[in-house]
């Protein structure tokens, strides 16, 4: 631990200050703006007279009228606690702990001039205590009391609870059983913007970020720093909240460990010094009290004396050792050559040191660091040997543990990417020398992200552990199973056999993974995987190429329906490179104005009159030419570009429609497609409202189309978004209806007004009885629910006549017009334009 460093090495020099006359509200606002948890109160001469922190804010009585207008000088902590910049972190830690503070004002040595501020968080971040934090689990902190409050309680009550129990955070209970957190910083935001009384739920962060009690303090510190948090919930194995910890708790744990070590060291030192009266007596006492074992032998190696540490380490008493040789401790782990080399060096140099594995009296092995020194007489003849040794068994075990963690996945215990890369390279080198073949399998779980996002990371971790166990049980002897990252596993098969044998093995692995699993005690999920295979040297002659090609084969398996395996073929890389180029070009397409919106007419079947149009995105790439939406829309979905692209289409189509309304009096409805990602992650209600405001298009002229699978999503956020759009007066339509698995009962509850029959049912309805029956059933069902029915893909008069006879309301397709650029589509809007 680095307590010897000075305070100046880690202090924050951005000092936020104010005068004593500054109001509490102004001080809180400044702290919120600068993201500081303390403000120094300066007098007219620029010297610190006090400090006001988030903890001081909690001491305010929020029931008191106009408390936010109180001068900060009346409620600050004074006199201000300072520490010199040249003081050690040990001194700062002790002072913070003793005074129960979170902040110290750092001043120049021998001066009251403020240089900056140091906090408990600064100390935790800068402590080099990774080894200690890695060895300590969070269960050592579960005894910390946790104080809770209901989300519906008022903020002054929460403040009083914090003040009464001297805590800087409360856990917040919600009616649905979930937890949030209310911190001193949240109350600071309230003081910065005083107003009407608030409930706890108005200020609390929800949901509370948590970590399992089985994780380490190092993991907790990393999570707090990664997400810039100051508190973290600790849960048991069943996911129940046990307590809340913060940076100050981690610092206290580090400090306790340091002080414990310091007290132990001081106690040993003081005992040795107090019992020493003279140099001979001191030497005798050191011999008796040192933690290292000491053995003194004669020139023939017979033991003359041992110290108490020898007995404590080896288990042999003084009487049992004297007269024997050190061979008493031999374990048999060192060869005769080892001892021959040792004594040869002793004769040459009079000195030897190294590590030896010996055996205690009880039979247990231990590792010691041994130093042997020859003691000559006045004539240079060796009369005695002194051996000093320390038991380093625990240190060796810790080193082995650290080495294991550096090369293995902490969750599953499998080799990680680093160790696997070494094994793969070794396999390539061996196969190249012996001219043999071996296989590499790349395995990726199907829909793992959905399971992880739905059931939580703890359930996801449980799934990964179970899959790793199944893979290890399935692979043959000599194979290596590794976890590279996330849900990606690899299997290295040195003795692959024939391709047919390899295929059978791959299928057996998939079958061992595929099936139903119970996670988190009661959540049932269906698991499957996709597997890719690359063979050395056929599919690559380097470790990197083999891994890339096995990965490409795995993605081909996913694209072919998942839950299957694929051998690598040369065209896979070409396909992957093409997709990579497409994704790169897609990122630049918006900025380079390569996207265009075309419009396809939508007509009333009874009259043939134009009643609206659908906006369809087109991409004209300068090198690839016209890129089909079938190719680039899925890529945009996967790389999360669909949200900004979708927003641009909506903005452009609404602007164009408003322009046509102003120029031609066009009052038809514009239909725009929305992706599921836009609805879930694109703040769609606010986005649509802003677009309508900016373009001036009335809400009743906008129709938003969602896919059937998105409409059937049971996510509460999706339903709230749809209801919010409908409340604005926007028409909602289900696109491609009939291709999913809609529940009529659920469909009835959706706030939609339009059903669009998928073109796959229209294409052959004039000569396919099944398609005709499906189209008739959808029309009948939609009309019975009071929905407007639109048919897509109408390309012939026979299609139109059939749909008209069945009572379908509207249609679009090549019979009425292909998707057209704005200039061409505008011809349909001219007063003399004939019906479509």
Task: Please tell me about this protein's structure.
- With 836 residues, the protein is an alpha/beta fold.
- The protein has 33 helices and 33 strands.
- The strands form 8 sheets. An 8-stranded mixed barrel has the order 25-26-28-29-30-31-32-33. Strands 14-13-17-16-15 form a 5-stranded antiparallel β-sheet, with helices on both faces. A 5-stranded mixed β-sheet has the order 19-20-18-23-24, sandwiched between helices.
- A hairpin with a 5-residue loop joins β16 and β17.
- α1 crosses α8, α11 packs across α12 and α19 runs antiparallel to α20.
- It is flat and about 125 Å long.
Main sheet makeup: 8 strands, mixed, barrel
- Structural class, from secondary structure content? alpha/beta
Radius of gyration: 37 Å
Number-wise, the strands total 33
Residue stretches low in confidence (pLDDT < 50, at least 5 long) are none
Mean pLDDT: 85
Count of helix runs: 33
End-to-end CA span: 81 Å
- Helical amount: 40-55%
Could you state the oligomeric state of the chains shown?
single chain
Order of the strands making up the biggest sheet: 25-26-28-29-30-31-32-33
Principal-axes geometry comes out as flat
């Amino acid at each position: 631990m680095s307590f010897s460093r000075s305070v100046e090495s880690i202090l924050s020099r951005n000092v936020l200050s104010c005068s004593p006359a500054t109001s509490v509200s102004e001080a809180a606002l400044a702290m919120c703006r600068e993201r500081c948890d303390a403000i120094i109160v300066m007098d007219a001469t620029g010297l610190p007279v006090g400090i006001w922190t988030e903890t001081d804010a909690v001491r305010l009585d929020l029931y008191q009228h106009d408390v936010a207008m109180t001068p900060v000088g009346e409620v600050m902590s004074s006199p201000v606690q300072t520490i010199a910049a040249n003081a050690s972190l040990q001194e700062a830690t002790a002072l913070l702990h003793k005074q129960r503070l979170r902040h110290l004002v750092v001043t120049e040595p021998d001066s009251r001039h403020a240089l900056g501020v140091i906090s408990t968080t600064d100390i935790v971040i800068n402590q080099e205590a990774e080894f200690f934090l890695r060895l300590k689990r969070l269960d050592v902190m579960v005894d910390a009391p946790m104080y809770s409050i209901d989300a519906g309680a008022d903020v002054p009550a929460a403040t009083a609870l914090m003040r009464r129990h001297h805590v800087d955070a409360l856990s917040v209970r919600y009616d649905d059983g979930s937890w949030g957190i209310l911190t001193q910083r949240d109350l600071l935001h309230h003081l910065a913007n005083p107003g009407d009384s608030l409930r706890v739920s108005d200020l609390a962060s929800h949901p509370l970020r948590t970590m399992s009690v089985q994780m380490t303090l190092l993991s907790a510190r990393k999570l707090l720093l990664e997400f810039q948090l100051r508190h973290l919930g600790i849960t048991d194995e069943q996911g129940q909240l046990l307590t809340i910890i913060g940076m100050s708790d981690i610092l206290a744990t580090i400090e306790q460990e340091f002080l414990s070590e310091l007290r132990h060291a001081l106690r040993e030192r003081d005992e040795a010094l107090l019992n020493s009266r003279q140099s001979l007596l001191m030497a005798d006492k050191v011999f008796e009290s040192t933690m290292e074992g000491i053995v003194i032998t004669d020139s023939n190696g017979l033991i003359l004396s041992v110290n108490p540490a020898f007995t404590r380490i080896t288990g042999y008493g003084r009487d049992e050792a004297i007269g024997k040789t050190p061979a008493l401790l031999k374990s048999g782990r060192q060869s005769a050559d080892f001892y021959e080399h040792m004594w040869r060096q002793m004769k040459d140099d009079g000195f030897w040191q190294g590590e030896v594995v010996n055996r205690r009296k009880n039979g247990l092995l231990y590792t010691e660091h041994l130093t042997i020194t020859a003691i000559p007489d006045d004539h240079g003849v060796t009369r005695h040997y002194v051996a000093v040794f320390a038991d380093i068994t625990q240190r060796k075990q810790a080193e082995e543990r650290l080495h294991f963690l550096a090369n293995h996945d902490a969750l599953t215990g499998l080799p990680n990417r680093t160790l696997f890369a070494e094994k793969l390279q070794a396999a390539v080198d061996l196969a190249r020398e012996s001219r043999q073949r071996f296989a590499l399998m790349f395995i990726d779980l199907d829909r793992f992200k959905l399971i992880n996002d739905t059931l939580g990371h703890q359930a996801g971790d449980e799934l990964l552990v179970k899959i790793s166990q199944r893979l290890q049980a399935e692979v043959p002897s000599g194979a290596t199973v590794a976890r590279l990252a996330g849900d990606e596993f690899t299997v290295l098969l040195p003795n692959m056999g024939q391709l047919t044998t390899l295929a059978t093995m791959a299928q057996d692995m998939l079958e061992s993974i595929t099936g139903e699993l119970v996670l988190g005690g009661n959540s049932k999920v269906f698991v499957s995987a996709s597997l890719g295979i690359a063979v050395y040297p056929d599919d690559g002659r380097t470790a990197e190429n083999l891994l890339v090609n096995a990965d490409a084969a795995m993605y081909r398996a996913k694209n072919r329906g998942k839950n299957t395996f694929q051998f690598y073929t040369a065209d896979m890389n070409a396909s992957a490179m093409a997709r990579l180029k497409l994704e790169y070009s897609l990122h630049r397409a918006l900025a380079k104005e390569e996207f265009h919106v075309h419009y396809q007419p939508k007509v009333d079947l009874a009259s043939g009159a134009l009643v609206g149009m659908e906006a369809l995105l087109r991409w004209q790439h300068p090198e690839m030419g016209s890129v089909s939406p079938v190719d680039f829309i899925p890529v945009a979905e996967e790389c999360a570009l669909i949200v900004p692209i979708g927003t641009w289409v909506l903005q452009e189509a609404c602007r164009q429609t408003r322009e046509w309304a102003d120029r031609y009096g066009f009052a038809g409805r514009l239909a725009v497609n929305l992706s599921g990602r836009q609805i879930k992650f694109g703040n769609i209600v606010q986005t649509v409202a802003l677009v309508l405001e900016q373009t001036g298009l009335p809400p009743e002229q906008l129709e938003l189309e969602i896919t059937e699978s998105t409409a059937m999503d049971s996510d509460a956020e999706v339903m709230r978004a749809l209801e919010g759009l409908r409340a604005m007066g926007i028409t909602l339509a289900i696109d491609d209806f009939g291709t999913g698995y809609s529940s009529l009962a659920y469909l009835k509850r959706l706030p939609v007004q339009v059903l669009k029959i998928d073109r796959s049912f229209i294409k052959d309805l004039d000569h396919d009885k099944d398609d005709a029956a499906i189209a008739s059933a959808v029309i009948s069902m939609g009309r019975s629910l009071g929905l407007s029915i639109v048919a897509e893909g109408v390309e012939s008069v026979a299609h139109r006549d059939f749909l008209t006879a069945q009572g379908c309301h509207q249609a679009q397709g090549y019979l009425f017009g292909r998707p057209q650029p704005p200039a061409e589509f505008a011809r349909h809007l001219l007063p003399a334009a004939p019906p479509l």
